[in-house]
Specification:
Oligomer: single chain
Radius of gyration: 21 Å
Bound molecules: adenosine monophosphate, glycine
CATH class of the largest domain: Alpha Beta
Largest sheet: 6 strands, antiparallel
Number of domains: 4
Structural class: alpha+beta
Low-confidence stretches: none
Distance between the termini: 51 Å
């Protein structure tokens, strides 16, 4: 069976690695720049920007691809799934109209409201920045300011955190319109990802990502510095009731897309804020999270290829998806200065990384040496019976990298987890 993986980041290296466990799969890759980890697993690599829909479709047809797994959101928005499926190549990744759940934050909120889906924060959608500024002036409290379209996870600014009221208006003006303003949610974030076949949804273990650049959750937002999951596949600050509510919200979103006439097939990613009143939807993504993909795919113990076949057939069931009962910790190595002024082209030395799994991201290999680029470099995942054990493995590996890079040592530690638990207790 020939499977094409689209994308060249850490998430796609994790996808490729999980698929490569099946010896009957021949892997093909489309990526903008050579990811050395993916290149080592692929039979053929087509170097092209992931949004070059026509060229990628031609490559897939010429290569005789059976299935395509689309990693990032940009090709979904560009209609890659629509194009490949029009040529009978089944895709894991929704068609453009269904991917709007991620690519159009206004659509997402309107859809949630129309179908009465729980967990929708109070919000307003604006086309003119002047109206948004008036709203900010009149609003009593803090707001989250979100550009409508894709921003690579870096477009959201929060009043009271990144901006004051004047700064908020200035930011809205700089966006020039098309903005969603919503109530600032207070709580603890968690990620629930699921496989979806158009009507059935099978959840994956809960994960918590860390967006802030520096230890102690300070500094600018990044694509995500690392993430962890627990051996029981839940998080200690998410109650059974919170979990059930989050899962219901995800299932309702899938049902609503079906009724809208855009059945959703692919990975559905729910980013939730667990608030005093229960989980609220920060956003949906139409793909795996990065880094969250590295947690769940490192734990996946059933055959990913079979899951894909079932998603395409519409016969997905919980019994076909299993994960190891282990904790996982993922730590990203990033260039010094990331995200604002990353030092690229810096050589890396990698010492003994022990039992950690290694996923390459934005890194180049030249003459056997690795060099940083401008985005996240590579990630290590530790697995263990306890979070402590998983953290130790990931941390030892991350600490074994030498060069102009850094990572967050606090991700997955008992201290940080306790802070989350205490925060949630305080709120309730
Ligand atoms: P997003 O790009 O939607 O993932 O948002 C980036 C980050 O902004 C999230 O991880 C949250 O930390 C934060 N955020 C987004 N929306 C809200 C909100 N309504 N209230 C508080 N924080 C938010
Ligand atoms: N980890 C957040 C994202 O992938 O959007």
């Amino acid at each position: 069976m020939k499977i094409l993986v689209v994308g060249g980041g850490g998430r796609e290296h994790a996808i490729t690695t999980a698929l490569s466990r099946n010896p009957d799969v021949h892997l093909y890759s489309v990526m903008a720049k050579t990811n050395p980890g993916i290149a080592a697993l692929a039979r053929e690599v087509f170097l092209a920007k992931e949004t070059r829909v026509k060229e990628i479709t031609d490559f897939a047809i010429t290569s005789g691809i059976d299935y395509a797994v689309i990693g990032p959101e940009a090709p979904l928005e560009a209609g890659l799934t629509d194009s490949l499926e029009s040529r009978d190549i089944a895709c894991i990744g929704p068609v453009r109209a269904a991917a709007r759940l991620e690519t159009d934050k206004g659509f997402c909120r309107t859809m949630m409201e129309k179908h009465g889906i729980a967990g929708c924060p109070r919000h307003r959608i604006f086309a003119a920045w002047e109206d948004a500024c008036d709203f900010i002036d009149a609003y009593d409290g803090d707001l989250a300011i979100k550009p409508i379209g894709l921003t690579g996870g870096k477009g959201v600014r929060i009043m009271g955190e990144h901006l004051d009221r004047d700064g908020a208006k200035e930011y809205v003006r700089s966006l020039g319109g098309d903005v969603v303003l919503e109530e600032r949610l207070i709580g603890e974030e968690f990620t629930l990802q699921a496989f979806v076949d158009g009507s059935h949804l099978v959840p994956m273990p809960l994960v918590q990502d860390h967006k802030r650049a520096f230890e102690g959750d300070v500094g600018p937002n990044t694509g995500g510095m690392g993430s962890y999951s627990m051996a029981d596949h839940r998080l200690p600050f998410v109650s059974a009731r919170d979990y059930d509510q989050a899962l219901t919200i995800m299932k309702d979103a899938v049902t609503s897309m079906y009724h809208e006439g855009f059945p959703y097939r692919g990975i559905l990613y729910g980013q939730f804020m667990n608030t005093a009143e229960g989980p609220k939807v920060i956003e949906f993504n139409a793909r795996f999270g990065d880094p969250e993909a590295m947690n769940v795919l490192s734990l996946l113990s059933s055959d990913f290829t079979e899951i894909i076949c079932r998603m395409v057939e519409g016969s997905l069931s919980a019994s076909s998806v299993t994960f190891e009962q282990k904790a996982s910790v993922c730590k990203y190595i990033v260039p010094e200065g990331y995200p604002e002024a990353p030092r690229s082209g810096e050589p890396l030395g990698i010492g003994d990384t022990g039992a950690a799994l290694r996923y390459y991201a934005n890194v180049v290999e030249q003459d056997g040496r690795l060099y940083t680029q401008t985005s996240r470099t590579l990630a290590f995942v530790g697995l263990g019976d306890t979070l402590e054990e998983a953290e130790r493995v990931a941390e030892a590996a991350a600490a074994a990298v030498r060069g102009a890079v850094r990572h967050r040592r606090d991700i997955g530690t008992a201290d940080l987890l306790q802070q989350r638990i205490d925060h949630m207790r305080e709120l309730r």
